[in-house]
Design a protein that fits this description.
By secondary structure, this protein is mainly α. It has 4 helices and 2 strands.
Amino acid sequence: MKIALLIPLYSIFSFLSICFPISFVYLVPWLHLFQAFALGSFFLLMCEFVSPSSEQRDVFFAALRVLDKREAGGVGDGLTWYRVRTATSILETVQQTDTRLSENGS
């Protein structure tokens, strides 16, 4: 369902960005978050198709490491990436709101 909802949500948010250009900076981080959740859901769906057994899937993914250029060792965690992306979207929206309010107040 998350994958199927990406297109209508993206369309609605794009339409709102066109109707209210000032709100564009607030809506873009949420579009990125929707894309990340849809991509993650698609990945999990493909994993289910490849290996219906959760034990085999756990063994397969236990050996994999996510390459992260920012990490000192070069290896990161996929779950951490999703958590950071969610937090980044929220913080970006708050920061944009704060910037807008301070510009209007001065």
